Amino acid sequence: MENKYDIIVNYIENEIKKESFKSKLPSIRALAIKFSCSNSTVIRAYSELEKKGSIYSMPKSGYFILENSLFKQNNLVQDKFDFSSGEPNEAIFPVAQFQKYIDIAINSYGTSLFNYGHSDGFSELKTTLCNKYSEKGLNLTEESIYFSNGAQQSISLLSLMRFHNNKDSILVESPSYNIYLGWLKLTKSKVYTIPRGKDGIDLNLLEDLFKNKDLKFFYTMPRLHNPLGTSYDEETKKQILYLANKYDVYILEDDYLSELNDVSNKPIKSYDSFEKVIYLKTFSKILLPGARLAAISLPEKIVEDFRQFKTFCELQGNAVFQCALNEYILSTDYDDYIQNLKVHYDKKMDILKEIINENSDLNLNFTNPTSGLFSLIHLPKNLNMEEFLSNLRGNKIYIRHGKYFYYNNSENINTARISVAKCNEKEISHGISTLFDILRESLKSNIIKKPEILEL
């Protein structure tokens, strides 16, 4: 015969599955009356459900269902199909779960979290990250790690810094991260570009640039590139590192979706025996973008210069979030969330590729990511992009013009970035199918580039 404690646990779990409760669960007193038991028996049952990750508690408010939002957004719920934005869908944010770890952090460290701290960040989180990444073959040291207000802050500071190799130019892939390209233009930085396509880059051209240009660093996204969605193969990563060491060029590796990669797809940093890789990892895309937190691991020779730039730019980061993140990563909840998140994005990317393949009659050239958020599609050269995008907007479908991802706009030839970040599976299937129907009609109609008339 089951005891009252087990009966209550089973009752709550079954009612959650039947969606009998919207969010808040019955009070301790209500369940004690319902099952004719003591309050302590109900508290014990709720504690067990908290350990299972089914519910969470809020002081003076009660107990609430901890929903797995990753698998509850498969209806057509939006009034538009946003394939333009790289921002994650807010429905998947683990807000309720993370709130628990904010409470744990504050209860553990008290008022000290709200005072001034060290500019390099919360030391316990450094230790946790070193241990976490060592499991993946990435050897980082606590002394090399700093935290910044998102990846953009670290990238911007490095762009302004004078490196000890006395070089001042920056090499970026073409296409590349649009926000950073905007920063480089705004600061009038000295920039060179190297083309990158779905098959990678020309290593001979890279060597020529490393050898003959005064490059302080090469900014690259080796894994799940934005906007391409592709990754370099392992041999290419090793060759890039070899050339960087040979010609004294640093590599700024932006690993913004590190958790979504397969174990066989390694960061360049994992091969770095030369201390040439500046490794950057943000928590924005995979966790809570508004929290603005990134970790950067620096080669020993540039740690002190970065420390000074960071300190005078921002005295310290958000200690409360860093401490809460540390507690979260140490728990099993974080690994479970990441595992579910990878499945979530893998499924969405598979649907995107399936729809593209079903429309093979359009003969589109597109990248073929294994995971991540993005794919870059080359549209027919005779298509009038502005009119096509306007036509899509009229049908509430939004994609991102590829021109924003090229430092030199002349390099772009009718490309568009497709993002699966915001839409759910059904919205991707319906929206992308509709997009190709509109493209097909556009190519039949007059939405093509008109030949220019030369003025003599």
TrEMBL record:
DNA-binding listed as a keyword: yes
Pfam family of the protein (one): Aminotran_1_2
Every HTH gntR-type domain range: 8-65
Keywords: Aminotransferase, DNA-binding, Pyridoxal phosphate, Transcription, Transcription regulation, Transferase
UniProt keyword annotation of Secreted present: no
InterPro entries cross-referenced by the UniProt entry: Aminotransferase_I/II_large, HTH_trans_reg/aminotransferase, PyrdxlP-dep_Trfase, PyrdxlP-dep_Trfase_major, PyrdxlP-dep_Trfase_small, Tscrpt_reg_HTH_GntR, WH-like_DNA-bd_sf, WH_DNA-bd_sf
One Gene Ontology MF term: DNA-binding transcription factor activity
Family classification: In the C-terminal section; belongs to the class-I pyridoxal-phosphate-dependent aminotransferase family.
Name of this protein: DNA-binding transcriptional regulator, MocR family, contains an aminotransferase domain
UniProt source species: Clostridium frigidicarnis
